[in-house]
Amino acid sequence: MFRLTTTPHDLGPDFLQDQHRAFALLRETGPVRQILTPQGQRMWMVTRYQEARDALTDPALSKDIHTARARFDPYTLAVAGLELGGALSEHMLNTDPPEHTRLRRQIGRAFTSRRVRELRPRIEQIAATLLDDLAALGEADLLSVYAFPLPITVICELLGVPKEDQDDFRSWSTAMARLNSEQAGAAAMAIAGYLGQLIAAKRAAPSDDLLSDLITAEDDPLNDREMLAMAFLLLVAGHETTVNLIGNAVLALDQNPGQRDLLRTRPELLPSAIEEFLRYDGPITLATVRFALRATEIGGTPIPENDFVLISLAGANRDDRRFPHGEHLRVDQDATGHLAFGHGAHHCVGAPLARLEAEIALRALFTRFPHLTVSPASTLHWRGAMLLHGLETLPVRV
């Protein structure tokens, strides 16, 4: 069980298995506290809603990888999660305006809301096929049979990744999410090599996919390093978020049968319920790490120059000051304004796709299997990832 110990507060190895209790205790002591991560690094943690929202747009807090490399040694960067192997780290999440603005504008031109809406029939088709597989099994790990293959198929088809290569991305992204320097480095090398070859193939023979659209853009096109980093970000972020959103939502409903009954009797609530799932137990625990370009202040707490800052999206989303009864799931409440996809310039560009996939996946799942339950003998464990919040497995019975 998580407990507050010495100052700075040591999150300890069990933090990820009880993160909401940890954040609740931290919120009680103040909006910002200094902590020791499970990797032993000293950082500041923001856990209250208003302070988190403000910090997400604070220009004194930087994410720029080039500035970080000038200020910190490679080991510190790796442990902080800023450096995942050369060009792979030079993506939108590790840049500040105006560079971030330029990169986001390019992906916005290719990854349009219309393009996302047009994916609905294909997502519904993928979901139906996967549910046939689940029905045949009767009892299975929902993540490996349904929650993972659905979004990885969608994002890979969107980017033009061949089907036979799709399973590799699960192991690579899992290794990188754990922020183990050796595992993350090996995974980064593997994915960089693969994506480099894929980009070269698309340059030689563009096709009808998002990656080809980015490559053939005539206005301020991305160079090879930028293309590599962009493809990496879209592939990893483009499926991890939805995997965890689906799994966490199914678990939350299983643990709150009254809310599941309400959703069953009022299926029109599902779009708003998606927002509540994102708020209550979202797929991302923390925003990617920031560092102070200069001395600043968050919630009255001084933050010295070069100190690292973690913003707890999960902690902020259960703050009673913003969401009354924040520790409780309520599928019929207005959860808009949650920070599950961030806020400001770095708000997740793939949020519309994640919402669409989750809405289709959950509606299809509970329409097909209205009495689906988590296997009662299951021992559930959360993945060992500081940023992402998802289960290792979720055994279910249909």
From TrEMBL:
It comes from Acrocarpospora phusangensis. It comes from the Bacteria. Pfam families: p450. Belongs to the cytochrome P450 family. One of its GO terms (molecular function) is monooxygenase activity. Gene3D superfamilies: Cytochrome P450. PROSITE patterns: CYTOCHROME_P450. This is Cytochrome P450. Keywords: Heme, Iron, Metal-binding, Monooxygenase, Oxidoreductase. InterPro entries: Cyt_P450 (IPR001128), Cyt_P450_B (IPR002397), Cyt_P450_CS (IPR017972), Cyt_P450_sf (IPR036396).
